[in-house]
Amino acid sequence: MTWFNFLSKDVIVDCYTARADVYNFSPIKKASVYLPDWWKTLPKTFPNPSNPLLTNSTMKHCVGFTDLFAKGFMIPLWSDVVVQIGGQQDQHEHNYNYQFADFESKIDHHAERDMNGFYSFTDYQHLKFISPWRLTCNEEIEFLLLDPTWCNDAPDEMFVPPGVVNFKYQCGTNVNMFFRRRADTTAYTLKHNMPLAHFIPLTERKIKLKLHLVSEQELQRVSNINKAVTFINKYKNNKSILKERGCPFHHEVEK
Question: What is the mean pLDDT of residues 91-109?
């Protein structure tokens, strides 16, 4: 295979869920679908305040912005959810409540000691949105995980920290978030289909998404690649074993 043919070959990312509501109402889509409304309605130019004969360009011409949304795909929030963050007067790491509209989805959290006090829980609450999606890729390609910042109208209240994932050796898509803790209890409403996580492939090749609605049993088969076999360094050890043996986690999608 020539280098040109290699670059023209799509990278296949298989996306699995066992929830029909998620598959039908909240599919994973390419990032360009989630261009924010404020940008869509933005004029391309505005009058130059110093010289009426000139015009200035707006962000409509910002290549850094448009190229960002031309890359990768986003996982949208699969249900409305209200998140209540406890006030600063009540100091403990599980200082939150939540309610999803689907009455099924879950949120978890990490302990403050996991981060050695970085983003102190006095000022922030860590939350992990347990995603109904499992993603696999049979090629060793890393994906940069970013906060869809331009789609978030309250970035000072909540954000997704960045990271790098490789779907050849793990399939999880849980989304970590930090919510700012105010003096008093504060409630945040996150809407269905808001962009939750932006995945950008670290390759020049195009990405092709294949979405699959499968049974719980099939989803568990996909998820077994995440199974812990050691107490610590689970991912690192699993990856080392799979690289040595050749990854056995290839799945024939249910018809």
Answer: 92
pLDDT digits (tens, 9 = 90+) for 151-192: 998 889 999 999 999 999 999 999 999 999 999 999 999 999
CA distance 98 to 96: 7
Q: Phi and psi dihedrals of 199, rounded to 5?
A: -110, 120
pLDDT 10s digits, 26-53: 999 999 999 999 999 999 998 888 888 7
Reference 60, options 31, 36, 39, 76; nearest CA is 39
Quick one: tokens of 207? Answer: 């990405």
Tokens representing 151 are 């789609």
Q: Which of 123, 131, 90, 124 is nearest to 107 (CA)?
A: 131
Q: What are phi and psi of 177, to 5 degrees?
A: -140, 155
- Does residue 153 contact residue 241 with C-beta atoms inside 8 Å? no
129 bridge partner residues: 107, 175
How much is the pTM?
0.86
